[in-house]
Amino acid sequence: PANFYEKVWLILQKTPGGLFLFEGMLPQQPTLSELSPTEMSFARTVQELLGVVKYPEYSQIMGELLRIIATILQRNPELRFPYAVRLDGLIRDAAQILRLEQPGDEASQASKAEEKCEQCGSKGLDCVCIMYNSSNDSLSSCLARAVVNLLLAKDMRKGADRAVTDCKVA
């Protein structure tokens, strides 16, 4: 995608804990202080993180996720992630959102949660194969909702903490 590495750079600027993907990590520091977004070394570092992805479909979803995170952060410069972001966790969250939107009764969804996926071998909620067959609109929507949920969860906790500490009995 156009300006892909600049988008990853923006995400890294807003994520002090860095980015995780499976067992790999892209730390915010020293990455931002030692490299620039247009450097080949930065591109290579990003590719090392993303290179562990086995399936091309997952890789495509990862690219879409990074594009969506960058768009949200660009349009809302006041937002930032307080901790590290697990990219694979966001994809699992988006898959769960998509699963919940699927028609079907709760009993059949509960039984599917225990089954092993024939396509990827993952069990239940760890399987993200549901995303491979979804429409672009529904995929983007679920990815964006997973990102916003993560950003808002932090803001809601901070608001609740502030409400408790700012509460004074007269």
TrEMBL record:
Superkingdom as given in the UniProt entry: Eukaryota
Mode of membrane association: Lipid-anchor
Subcellular localization: Cell membrane
One Gene Ontology molecular-function label: calmodulin binding
InterPro entries reported for this sequence: KPBA/B_C, PHK_A/B_su
GO aspect biological process, one term: glycogen metabolic process
Alphabetized Pfam families for the sequence: KPBB_C (PF19292)
Coiled coil segments of this chain: none
Keywords: Calmodulin-binding, Carbohydrate metabolism, Cell membrane, Glycogen metabolism, Lipoprotein, Membrane, Prenylation
Domain Phosphorylase b kinase regulatory subunit alpha/beta C-terminal: 2-112
Biological pathway: Glycan biosynthesis; glycogen metabolism
Protein's UniProt keywords contain Transmembrane: no
Transmembrane segments: none
GO cellular component: phosphorylase kinase complex; plasma membrane
Described purpose of this protein according to its UniProt entry: Phosphorylase b kinase catalyzes the phosphorylation of serine in certain substrates, including troponin I.
Similarity remark: Belongs to the phosphorylase b kinase regulatory chain family.
Name of this protein: Phosphorylase b kinase regulatory subunit
Taxonomic placement: Eukaryota, Metazoa, Ecdysozoa, Arthropoda, Crustacea
